[in-house]
Amino acid sequence: MLTFLLILVLLAVLMVFRMPIAFAMGISGFIGLALQLGFNPAMAVLERAFFDTSASFILVSIPLFILMAELLTAGDVTRRAIIACQNWVGHFKGGLAMATVAASVLLAALVGSSTASTAAMAASAFPEMKRHKYHDSLAAAVVSVGGTLAVVVPPSIVLVVYGVLTETSIGKLFIAGIVPGLLTAAGLCTVIKIIAHRTDHAPKGDPFKFGKAVRSSVNVFPIALLIMAVIGAIYGGIASPSEAAALGVMGSLIVVLAQGTISMPGIGKSLSGAIRATVMIVAIIACSAIFSNYLAFTRVTQNLLEFVSNTEMPREVILAMMVLILLVMGMFMDQLAILSLAMPLAFPTAMALGYDAVWFGIIVTKTVEIGLLTPPLGLNAYVAGAQTGVPLGSIFRGLIPFLIMEIVVLIVLIMIPDITLYLPGLMGR
């Protein structure tokens, strides 16, 4: 136990000194294994952990989905999607903010990355809201909270990492994220509508022009079809997530080339961006496996499971404690770091309590999504602040009503599992 506490202290110290989470976990796990088993056995575990994780076929979907997002962003599709949504619903009070949420849903299905979605929204949607005299706090908050939809809406990279770490069906996780993502978007639009009616922070946009709205949607329509094809292929069992990701990359490349919105340097930049992001994510997964092996050899996971099985606390109380811990972790860490640190203990505990792996994955991703908005880290708020110039304090104040709605949606998802499990349940029939 003393050795385990020392390893936890070492992990905390490395993270305090801003060492990347992957290396911090890998170093701590390896030193723990060396102290527990000896240097040579620890090296054998290290080699096996890296091989087993990096050789996983399902990891192929990660670089493909990231490349799909990079191609669409370089091809100016994200900006066009935002403009199209604004032309359809931006003409009434709060309409531009709701259009930003609607575009965020589409963007989430395109890019799969919360920070990338927030950055795109901050560059495209915020200036438009500012031009129509939206309050800075509300406009920046909408940009920040809209970006979090990429955590739940497929093809979410966070869901892929959760599926790899827990050996849960990524296809079912993707399908399970659809309704919670749309429910979250509806909740955000409800908050915007209330703010628009009670304050003057969200005035009307430009008058509605049907022809302009239709014309702006023409270039977005092929992407909507591509999204439906990718998700439909997974839902119908026609393709695995990796195969569907390859379909998405090919479709994205065809669309942006046909529209003439991407150049060869743009394609090269997309490839390099996808490689950088993939290396980071695979490093986190591999180093998480090393730390998980250390936990297994120290029997920490087994002891926790024995405690859970012998405790008299209701399983709902234990689940609530796990959610609260994840929320607190979200105040200080990014979502991938939380998954890599928490899942080796939280997932076996949830399975021992009899919870569904797919449902638990959506609850976890929804919880870490909220962490992207909470101070002091609030990664999406920082991204929005850097892009828009709005002070962080003002953004966090603007996020308060949205955070309340996010927590309400999380509670609803916990209390009514069928909201999450209905669609993936149909896949198994």
Give me some keywords for this one.
mainly alpha; 429 residues
Description:
By secondary structure, the chain is mainly alpha-helical. It has one domain. It starts with a helix and ends with a helix.
Would you kindly provide a brief summary of this structure?
The chain is an all-alpha fold and 429 residues long.
Tell me the layout of helices and strands.
Layout (H helix, E strand, L loop, with lengths): L1 H15 L4 H17 L1 H16 L6 H14 L2 H13 L5 H17 L2 H18 L4 H12 L1 H4 L4 H10 L3 H7 L1 H21 L11 H9 L2 H15 L5 H19 L4 H35 L1 H11 L4 H16 L4 H18 L4 H15 L7 H10 L3 H24 L2 H10 L2
Helix pairs in contact: 1-2, 2-3, 2-16, 3-16, 4-15, 4-16, 5-6, 5-7, 5-13, 6-7, 6-8, 6-12, 7-8, 7-21, 8-21, 8-22, 10-19, 10-20, 11-23, 12-22, 14-15, 16-19, 17-19, 18-19, 18-20, 19-20, 20-22
